[in-house]
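Kindly inspect this today.
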Amino acid sequence: MNNTNTQQVKIAVSDPSAIGLFGLAIVTLVASSQKLGWTEGTSFILPWAIFLGGIAQLFACVQDAKHNNTFGSTAFGAFGLFWLGVGMSWLIQSGAFGSALADNMDPKQLGFAFVGYLIFSIFMTVGATETHKVLFIIFVLIDFLFIGLSLTSFGIMPEFSHKVAGVSEFLISMFSFYGSAAAVLNPHFGKVFLPIGKPFGWFKS
């Protein structure tokens, strides 16, 4: 047996929130363009929902898990799966899996999924108070997005709630672009190039 003391070498790994937030920024930008009436249909939202909203965020989820970051891993994983689920729902609605599924869909079922994600987003918003202010703002906007999506799916003030969802989604995109840029440029330059705001310190000293 070798009794020689061995020194553990820590391998530096990059912050996965850069690619995760970029994926969120792209998919919400494209999706909000449809909600706000700037574009039509969902066909060309699908690739971005699958690859940027889904796969990019799931990649960030796995990498955050390696950092032992339960909050980040859960957030990216849950929202990555959300976009894959939404993409599948659009495919079913379009008849890609046959008319039987398309004819049998009930938008209220999607509404219940949105309500579930609203509950998730609310307690993640509480957790985001102890990350940084840009991420906290993103989660508050996600709360409003799911409020709008839920109300729209249940036919409650559909025009107003659809607009709330569209505006919230567009703002999510803008703040996610900023957060992604900060995650790339701040460590790249070795200084605070883009400030993201300190945690609120309400629950952690």
About this structure: Residues 130 and 204 are 7 Å apart (CA to CA).
